[in-house]
Amino acid sequence: MNDIKIGKYTIGSNQKPFIIAEMSGNHNQSLDRALELVDAAAEAGAHALKLQTYTADTITMKGVHTINDKNSLWDGQELHDLYKMAHTPWEWHKAIFDRAKEKGMEAFSSPFDETSVDFLETLNVPAYKIASFENTHHPLLKKVAATGKPVIISSGVTSRKDITESIEVLKKAGCKNIILLKCTSTYPATPENTNLRTIPDFINSFDCIVGLSDHTMGVGASVAAVALGARVIEKHFTLRRADGGVDSAFSLEPEELKSLVVETERAFLSLGKIQTEILPAEEKSVLFKRSIYVSKDIKAGEVLSSENLRVIRPANGLAPKHWDDVSGKKAKIDIKAGTPLSWEVI
């Protein structure tokens, strides 16, 4: 699979993980807070900032549905009201994107309908993200693909058949650079329903760069995902979960986001290569393995045994594997205690 460029960053199987900080609705309808979130994401080392571009009216209609799920963070919320509270005003996008760029991050968004793609094109975004709940919205996929920009698509609430169709739709509509994110669309997701073993399967099945849109608490799932081949990690973040907000309960705080950046890069660097020999970096440490030493003074002709030999550090004597070979043999010469045993004295 080929590397993909998103702005100044190169994403690929041999590249460090690309970390996307998802602001979502955690700005709590304050532009000042949104800009604080941008600054915090940059300070934590995130490579990209992502928004969601919709209004309540572009995503649903008033009165069509109220969430009735005691396990949902949004139980009892009418959809239109929820999205009205959660959306990022379109007139804020430029200020947020400009701030992100000033801070060295790339900035893009998840469009939720065709009009939002038209709007985002005026801001010259470097890529598009397709959210799980839009990943079978073929008209939207075609609209995004026609821009010719890289597309990151999440796999939540989707069968293999559906995601295969969606990738084909993107390709046929002109998209050449696709990143597929494993995603479990529960909020929060549990470790048990995250199923990271899907990542290598996606890599083999779709021959594309794969990542994780992570809704679990903490950074453990993301670190494990990198070890399994993920090279893009998307996480929701906030200033403080205690501040509240539509997604705050499963969002990282700035210190945790920094840990995500550090630990996923550490996981990537740790993969290295298949190693079956002593590394150059280990050569000095060989001395601190064990070997056979004389533990009591031995006279010439005396039998070597556990009475006068020990296996201790350092490794200046014969290797421990020779213990049976030397036991019962006789000393050629007098040997003082503390001498590393060698073949020459046996």
What does this structure look like?
This protein is α/β, with parallel strands linked by helices and 346 residues long. It has two domains: 264 residues, Aldolase class I (TIM Barrel, Alpha-Beta Barrel); 66 residues, Type Iii Antifreeze Protein Isoform Hplc 12. The chain contains eleven helices and twelve strands. An eight-stranded parallel β-sheet has the order 5-4-3-10-9-8-7-6. A two-stranded antiparallel sheet has the order 1-2. Helix 1 packs parallel to helix 4, helix 6 runs parallel beside helix 7 and helix 9 runs parallel beside helix 10. It is elongated. The N and C termini lie far apart (60 Å).
- Name the average pLDDT: 96
Strands ordered across the widest β-sheet: 5-4-3-10-9-8-7-6
- Taken from the alpha-carbon principal axes, the silhouette is elongated
Q: What is the tally of beta strands?
A: 12
Summarize, please.
This protein is an alpha/beta fold. It is built from eleven helices and twelve strands. The longest helix has 18 residues, at 254-271.
Search tags:
two-stranded antiparallel ribbon, single chain, elongated, Type Iii Antifreeze Protein Isoform Hplc 12, 8-stranded parallel β-sheet, 346 residues, 31% helix, alpha/beta, 2 domains, TIM Barrel, 11 helices
